[in-house]
């Protein structure tokens, strides 16, 4: 792709959020994830370290998972976690993603750029797990670049991500300030993260099938500056013809807003449509996009009466417009009172992490799918330089189906059929891989196609696909985690026992006491960690 920035253009290195309601925009509002962290203690210097609380959320369920911070011990002594942020702001809010032993927060302090702390909240934290603890308060009169969370609970409290919200316009702030924020502090908690990034994408065109593809607009933001960067979607050509980018979302919601991260030739959006679960489009905005690059285009609107699982962005600009991430806001992903269907039909290629040289069985799971699916076809994709697929095994939900698969490097096709029908919540298949990539390498786990029909009337059944990811970790990071799900469980201990008696191939990272053998003692040590 040819460079599209001349050397005379300054690249904006401060990530600014453009909060845009219909007919209004502001470049000063910023919502940012922590860029650094320290703590009173941490369980280790890798998994469960303070650094695990930096960046966007990456722990999607409640559990003892090493992608979140945990203190060194499970006692009820007070602990603290200090998060630093790249851009000082006049703060208006803090959001904390709690993913294990939630409800641990007792106090929140803001730290100004002179290093002085200001307590803005003390109280009782009633967050459910996994959930978001949120406080809002009047805009501070001092610039804030750090947050200190004070915790106390029996057990390991775990925090996945922390977000600081505020105004970047600090030009009129006094050079020195003291005291705490005045006014009322509002506290809210939600049982599930209200942030929902796109899980799939198609476009009128894309620059390539890898870099600058439509798929680059899925997931959380990963393009942190303005520029022609291949981790964002770009159309095939730089002409000013209209283009469109359609994003799909795993969980239907009654929508109230859309946020778009534009990272090159911002200001290209002229129309936004919502797509309901029946496939019908609804235009909710047309107008002029005044987003500054890199920036956030945002619209809000009255809550829809229909359930939304798709967004279409219509763009037109001279040059390559680039979109990094799209967020759908609404009830059903957080909050209460949602009237979206209680059963959301999804199929997920689960994420996993195991060391190089290991063998891992990665499940494909169904959720909310009625038990009358008569047949299904899947196409799966992965990186053959990282994973070598060996076989596909049917899971508990599909034991009574006829089942077959075909593996070609990087692609797997799976087909299954049943007279009785299958469905429900659970595993339909496992894909067995040998891990051949080096530590630190990763592979997408993508469901590029899914089709299914009802067993009774052969009508098509819509099931949303949710992609996963695989990462090769070090043996130390994967120690004792046989299935690579980031948690210790009785199933991991059972795997150690099966290795001990020769029913499974031995994996060196399951040797917990490093004596060169895998025995019942290793299983016992894993069980101890499972109840940590």
Secondary structure: elements and pairs:
Layout lengths: L18 E3 L2 E3 L2 E5 L2 E4 L39 E22 L4 E8 L4 E6 L8 E6 L6 E9 L6 E10 L18 E5 L5 E2 L2 E4 L39 E22 L4 E8 L4 E6 L8 E6 L7 E8 L6 E10 L14 E4 L2 E4 L3 E23 L5 E8 L7 E7 L2 E25 L6 E13 L9 E3 L1 E6 L1 H4 L11 H11 L19 H11 L2
Parallel strand pairs: 20-27, 21-28
Antiparallel strand pairs: 1-2, 3-10, 4-5, 5-8, 5-9, 5-10, 6-7, 6-9, 8-11, 12-19, 13-14, 14-17, 14-18, 14-19, 15-16, 15-18, 20-22, 22-25, 22-26, 23-25, 24-25, 26-28
Helix pairs in contact: 2-3
Explain this structure.
It is built from 3 helices and 28 strands. It is mainly beta and 532 residues long. Strands 3, 4, 5, 6, 7, 8, 9, 10 and 11 form a 9-stranded antiparallel sheet that branches. Strands 20, 21, 22, 23, 24, 25, 26, 27 and 28 form a 9-stranded mixed sheet that branches. Strands 12, 13, 14, 15, 16, 17, 18 and 19 form an 8-stranded antiparallel sheet that branches. Strand 6 and strand 7 form a beta hairpin. The radius of gyration is 24 Å and the shape is globular. It starts with 18 loop residues before the first strand and ends with a helix.
């Amino acid at each position: 792709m040819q460079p599209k920035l001349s050397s005379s253009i300054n690249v904006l290195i401060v990530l600014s959020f453009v909060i845009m309601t219909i007919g209004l925009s502001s470049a000063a509002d910023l919502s940012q994830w922590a860029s650094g962290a320290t703590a009173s203690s941490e369980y280790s210097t890798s998994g469960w370290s303070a650094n695990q609380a930096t960046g966007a959320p990456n722990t999607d369920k409640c559990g003892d998972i090493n992608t979140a911070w945990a203190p060194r011990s499970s006692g009820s002594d007070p602990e603290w976690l200090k998060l630093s942020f790249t851009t000082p702001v006049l703060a208006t809010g803090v959001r904390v993603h709690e993913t294990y032993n939630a409800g641990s927060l007792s106090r929140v302090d803001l730290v100004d750029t002179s290093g002085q702390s200001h307590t803005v909240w003390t109280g009782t934290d009633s967050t459910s797990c996994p959930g978001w603890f949120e406080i809002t308060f009047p805009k501070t009169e001092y610039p804030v670049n750090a947050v200190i969370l004070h915790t106390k609970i029996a057990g390991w409290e775990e925090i996945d991500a922390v977000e600081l919200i505020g105004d970047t316009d600090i030009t009129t702030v006094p050079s020195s300030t003291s005291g705490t924020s005045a006014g009322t502090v509002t506290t809210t908690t939600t049982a599930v993260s209200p942030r929902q990034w796109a899980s799939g994408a198609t476009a009128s065109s894309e620059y390539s099938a890898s870099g600058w593809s439509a798929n680059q607009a899925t997931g959380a933001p990963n393009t942190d500056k303005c520029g022609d960067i291949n981790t964002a979607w770009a159309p095939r050509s730089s002409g000013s013809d209209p283009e469109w980018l359609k994003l799909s979302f795993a969980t239907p919601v009654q929508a109230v807003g859309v946020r778009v991260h534009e990272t090159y030739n911002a200001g290209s959006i002229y129309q936004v449509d919502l797509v309901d679960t029946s496939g019908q489009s609804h235009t909710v905005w047309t107008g002029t996009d005044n987003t500054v690059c890199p920036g956030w285009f945002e619209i809000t609107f009255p809550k829809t009466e229909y359930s939304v699982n798709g967004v279409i962005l219509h763009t037109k600009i001279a040059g390559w417009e680039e979109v990094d991430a799209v967020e759908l806001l609404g009830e059903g992903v957080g909050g209460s009172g949602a009237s979206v269907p209680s059963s959301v039909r999804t199929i997920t290629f689960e994420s996993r992490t195991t060391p190089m040289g290991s063998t891992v069985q990665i499940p494909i799971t169904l959720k909310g799918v009625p038990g009358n699916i008569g047949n299904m076809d899947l196409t799966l994709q992965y990186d053959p330089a990282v994973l070598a697929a060996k076989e596909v095994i049917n899971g508990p939900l599909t034991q009574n189906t006829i089942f077959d698969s075909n593996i070609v490097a990087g692609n797997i096709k799976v087909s299954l059929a049943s007279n009785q029908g299958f469905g429900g919540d659970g595993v339909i298949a496992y894909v067995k891989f040998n891990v051949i990539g080096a530590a630190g390498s990763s592979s997408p786990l993508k469901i590029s196609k899914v089709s299914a029909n009802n067993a009774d009337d052969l009508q098509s059944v819509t099931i949303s696909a949710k992609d996963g990811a695989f990462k090769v970790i070090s043996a130390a990071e994967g120690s004792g985690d046989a299935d690579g799900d980031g948690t210790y469980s009785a199933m991991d201990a059972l795997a150690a026992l099966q290795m001990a008696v020769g029913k499974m191939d031995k994996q060196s990272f399951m040797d917990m006491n490093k004596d060169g053998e895998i025995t019942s003692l290793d299983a016992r040590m894993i069980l101890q960690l499972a109840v940590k």
